[in-house]
Amino acid sequence: MVVITAKGKKYHRPNCHTVKQYVKELTVDEARQLGYKPCKVCKP
Ligand SMILES: [Zn+2]
User: Fold this and answer.
1) 3 and 24 Cβ atoms separated by less than 8 Å
2) For residue 18, how far is its CA from the centre of ligand 1 (angstroms)?
3) Do the Cβ atoms of 7 and 23 come closer than 8 Å?
4) Interior CA angle at 38 toward 5 and 17, to 5°?
5) Which of 24, 31, 33, 43 could form a disulfide linkage to 11, CB 3.0–4.6 angstroms apart?
6) Within 10 A of 17 (CB to CB), how many other CB atoms are there?
7) Strand order from edge to edge, sheet including 2-4
8) How many helices (H) and strands (E) does the chain have?
9) Cα(14) to centroid of ligand 1, in Å?
10) CA 38 to centroid of ligand 1, rounded, Å
11) How far, in Å, is the centroid of ligand 1 from the Cα of 27?
């Protein structure tokens, strides 16, 4: 599972240090379908 934030357009691993608070958990496929891109820090 990956997480997304309220403002960002990236998806992250739940333990990514750039994510202080996430709004939703979803699968990578779901995140991609919603137009999110992978975070360059946590490489989900
Ligand atoms: Zn990240």
Assistant:
1) yes
2) 6
3) no
4) 55
5) 31
6) 9
7) 24-26, 2-4, 10-12, 37-38
8) 1, 4
9) 8
10) 8
11) 14
Please state whether the predicted TM-score (pTM) of the whole model is above 0.70: yes
Which neighbouring-strand residues pair with 5? none
- Smallest CA-to-CA distance from 37 within 9, 5, 15 is with 9
34 Cα: distance to centroid of ligand 1 (angstroms): 17
Q: In angstroms, what is the span from residue 23 Cα to ligand 1's centroid?
A: 14
12 Cα: distance to centroid of ligand 1 (angstroms): 4
Question: Which residue, among 20, 18, 25, has the nearest Cα to 4 in the 3D structure?
Answer: 25
- What pLDDT was estimated at residue 26? 97
24-36 pLDDT, tens digit each: 999 999 999 999 9
